[in-house]
Amino acid sequence: MLQLRPSCECCDTDLPPESTEARICSFECTFCAPCATSKLAGKCPNCGGELVARPRRPLAKLVNNPASTERIFKPAGCAEFV
Question: Is 0.70 topped by the overall pTM?
Answer without folding.
Answer: yes
